[in-house]
Structures are given as structure tokens and as C-alpha cells.
Specification:
The chain is of the alpha/beta class. Helix content is 45%, strand content 14%. The protein is built from 11 helices and 8 strands. The chain has an 8-stranded parallel barrel, surrounded by 4 helices. The longest helix is centred in the C-terminal third of the chain and has 22 residues, at 244-265.
């Protein structure tokens, strides 16, 4: 395996491919973790450039995240990019974690503010915003740093322009690639790219794709993020709301069409799949796009 940093991965003419996974919850027997590893074996065949691993607010699942990171690197032999949040975390703890991941030969990290955890008694304010974390990482390590972008604005941002100003701070602090939140409307994304140019933001973009697996998942997603649902997608989701298999098939077709249009636009450098720890829909979309050739 060749270890590659973000600059090399996203400077290639070839469309980069990445997946996001998360440590399973309530998995005392390890059954969910073993299932995740089987799903990753399926997704490995598409030769992803990297796999990102989420990190709970305040480091709530840090140990399990490290176990998964180790598996991806040593067993699957794929570049891995941990997520790292800073909200409510002491600077000392962040420094220690960065030292801890060095043994995994990690080259890249996704720096996030994160959501404030609800189940802690003390919330440290060493870091308030993601740009402060980016600056700390770049000042203390050789890691390549990715940052999050929100094509329709962060749910807590008053408007899109304010959110892009915050993104600019992250880029100036050392952010090298933008990984976008899920977006289902390409027109919204194309407008976003135009706005980024207004702020002289020209780093590569990995576009976040979320194949919808069920109507319940769709409803939960709508309550947590600021995303628009185009009429074509909304009509299909309601049409098949009582049949998850039909929703999956419809979403695979919709996401394939969306992804192909994004590739054709030449405005993105990578596709980033929010897999929800499932291989079926992501692999079907990649087959449709020709990534298995």
C-alpha cells in the first residue's frame, strides 16, 4: 500500500473515491463490528483512495475508532482518515490523541468542530471553532488536513455567506480539501461553487453522497441537517415510503444520475460516500458509474 496525503490524492486527474463509516453503537458482542468489516471487504474492490472514520463528540468512541483505523490500515491496506472533533476537549487531550495516531502511519485527518455532547459535566473551551483545530494540527504535526463544507450552509449558520466566511478561515488555517455535507440538489452545489470562487476558495472538493436506505432514515436526516430535497427525489421517496427495497433501488438510480452529472461538471475532485456502514447501495452506484472496470 502506498501512503498518500490529501494533496496527492486530490491533485490527480482521476476521480478520487472515499467512504465514510462510523463505529457501531451498542455492540457488546462485536457482531456489528464484524459485519462492518464484511461490508468493507465488499467496498474494497472499488479501490478507494481512503476511508474516513467518524469520531464521537468529546471523543466518546475514541478507542473503537482506533481499532477500526488499525483494521483499515493493517488488514485492508487502505489509506484511512480519522475524523477529529475539538468541541469540549482540552488542548492537552488533543495533543495526546495526535501523538497516539502517529503509530498508524496516518497521513490525513478531517478536522471538525463537532456537536457539543449532551452527557458530560465539563465542557472545555480550549477550542471554539474548527479553524482553531486546523491551525493547531498544522502547527504541531505533518498531517494533511481536510475540512467540512456545507453547500446549503451549516444548520447553525445564519446564512450561506456567513458559513462560507467560516470555511475561508479553515482554509487559511491550513485546510487542503473540502469534504461536503450530503447534498441532493446539484444546482445548489453549483451555486455554492460559484460563491466559493467569490471568496477565493479554490481547494479540491470531495462531494458527499448519501444513498437513502429507508424513509425513516430520510426523516431523521431532514431533522438534523440543512438540505433541500428536489421534487423528483421527494416524489420517489413518498411513492416508495412503505417499501425499503424499492426506496433503495430508486435512490441508487437517483444518486447514480446525480454523481455522473457532478463528474461531468468537472467541479469536483472526488466522490465521498456516506455509506451508513452498508455496502449494497454504494457498490451498486459505483458499478453503474463504471468504478469496477
Amino acid at each position: 500500500m502506498t501512503l498518500e496525503n490529501l494533496d496527492k490524492i486530490y491533485s490527480s486527474d482521476k476521480m478520487a473515491l472515499s467512504y465514510e463509516i462510523f463505529p457501531p453503537k451498542d455492540d457488546d458482542t462485536g457482531e456489528k463490528l464484524n459485519k462492518l468489516y464484511l461490508e468493507l471487504e465488499i467496498l474494497k474492490q472499488y479501490n478507494p483512495n481512503l476511508i474516513s472514520v467518524t469520531y464521537g463528540a468529546g471523543g466518546s468512541n475514541r478507542n473503537l475508532s482506533l481499532d477500526i483505523i488499525s483494521y483499515i490500515y493493517y488488514e485492508l491496506k487502505i489509506n484511512v482518515m480519522p475524523h477529529f472533533t475539538c468541541i469540549c476537549t482540552k488542548k492537552e487531550d488533543i495533543a495526546n490523541y495526535l501523538k497516539e495516531i502517529e503509530k498508524y502511519n496516518i497521513k490525513n485527518i478531517l478536522a471538525l468542530r463537532g456537536d457539543e455532547p449532551q452527557d458530560i459535566t465539563v465542557c472545555y473551551r480550549d477550542f471554539r471553532y474548527a479553524n482553531e483545530l486546523v491551525d493547531f494540527i498544522k502547527s504541531n504535526t505533518d498531517l494533511s488536513v481536510a475540512v467540512a463544507g456545507y453547500p446549503e450552509g451549516h444548520i447553525l449558520a445564519p446564512d450561506l455567506e456567513s458559513d462560507i466566511k467560516n470555511l475561508k478561515k479553515k482554509i487559511l488555517a491550513g485546510g487542503e480539501v473540502i469534504f461536503t455535507q450530503m447534498c441532493f440538489d446539484n444546482d445548489k452545489f453549483f451555486y455554492y461553487v460559484d460563491k466559493l470562487k467569490d471568496f477565493d476558495i479554490n481547494v479540491p472538493i470531495a462531494f458527499g453522497l448519501l444513498p437513502i436506505l429507508s424513509f425513516k432514515q430520510f426523516e431523521k436526516m431532514m431533522s438534523m441537517a440543512k438540505v433541500s430535497i428536489p421534487k423528483k427525489l421527494l416524489d420517489g421517496l413518498y411513492k416508495y415510503k412503505d417499501n425499503s427495497d424499492d426506496i433503495k433501488k430508486f435512490s441508487i438510480d437517483y444518486t447514480t444520475e446525480q454523481a455522473q452529472a457532478l463528474i461531468d461538471s468537472k467541479l469536483i475532485s472526488g466522490l465521498h460516500f456516506y455509506t451508513l456502514n452498508k455496502a449494497y447501495s454504494t457498490s451498486a452506484i459505483l458499478d453503474n458509474l463504471g468504478f469496477n472496470n
